[in-house]
């Protein structure tokens, strides 16, 4: 069954307080959970490992994009048939991976992207909703992809899709880069509903309006670099 | 006196840029192209004013200041791009280390 060879990749940075519960929940359904500890200063890596995750440690902090790619490279190298990316802060639900995986296989797609706007976003602040709408418009203009949710960390992809994409934006703009790669590689994508639960913990660590400025400047810089 | 100090300084920069040409070719070219007119202006300051007037700038000193801003911005941009390229190489190295030292789960229920 597909679930058995679906590897879940969880990039994590200083998530010690919540990572144990997140990993334990994943391990109830998935045999292969890979946590990429992105240079955490807390006991995040050790907690993840004792909760049942395979642990990869970056020697220093590189960013979420770099952590995702490290996990993807590892899982592909170990023979994963399907790969899921999952947030470490407790916002995502394990059962949504399974529904994305089911939808991916049913539709014959290369990658399934989670959408909180097709599903539900519990306790989402109005400012976050506005910010995500702006990001959606930006993505439509830059990649041509018509998506309802463009900065969602829950995704499921086939092994083939994982091998055709390579995230080079180490930090926050990796989500936009991934969508650009989906467009340029002409991967067959679907969106599937999922639920994001905003907690006080996740909101304190999550993206703010300032982060969108950072993301835009990163995209600009990487654009300049690529044209060299 | 100042002309000799400036000349020695510019020549040292030029020699350094030439020595580094295999590593950072674009930067070497920019520096070399800046040093030669710089030497001309050090020894013939009035030439800067003549050239400034020709392109609509009042004083030679102002023209040098504007060019300095332009060159500095260009150099900063080049260095930023170089830094990003280096960051990419460091990332690949860190990734290899992380994957090479993968730690299996240490809970009793682990199957991976």
Shape of chain A, please?
globular
End-to-end span of chain B in angstroms?
75 Å
Tally of helical runs of chain B: 4
CATH fold type of chain A: Spore Coat Polysaccharide Biosynthesis Protein SpsA, Chain A
Distance between the termini of chain A: 46 Å
CATH class designation of chain A: Alpha Beta
Rg calc of chain B: 24 Å
Task: Give the structural class of chain B.
Answer: mainly alpha
Describe the protein's architecture and organization.
The complex is a heterodimer of chains A (228) and B (112). Chain A is α/β, with parallel strands linked by helices. Chain A has one domain (2-226): Spore Coat Polysaccharide Biosynthesis Protein SpsA, Chain A, CATH 3.90.550.10. Chain A contains nine helices and seven strands. A seven-stranded mixed sheet of chain A has the order 3-2-1-4-6-5-7, with helices on both faces. Chain A is globular, with a radius of gyration of 16 Å. Chain A starts with 5 loop residues before the first strand and ends with a helix. In chain A, 49% of the residues are buried. The mean pLDDT of chain A is 89. Chain B is mostly helical and 112 residues long. Chain B has helices at 2-19, 25-43, 45-54, 60-100. Chain B starts with a helix and ends in a 12-residue tail after the last helix. Classes of the chains: A alpha/beta (228), B mainly alpha (112). At the A-B interface, β3, α3 and α9 of A face α4 of B.
SSE order and pairing:
The complex is a heterodimer of chains A (228) and B (112).
Chain A: E1 6-12, H1 16-27, E2 33-37, H2 44-50, E3 54-57, H3 64-77, E4 82-85, H4 94-107, E5 111-122, H5 126-143, E6 155-158, H6 159-164, H7 174-184, E7 189-197, H8 200-205, H9 209-226
Parallel strand pairs in A: 1-2, 1-4, 2-3, 5-7
Antiparallel strand pairs in A: 4-6, 5-6
Helix pairs in contact in A: 1-2
Chain B: H1 2-19, H2 25-43, H3 45-54, H4 60-100
Helix pairs in contact in B: 1-2, 2-3, 3-4
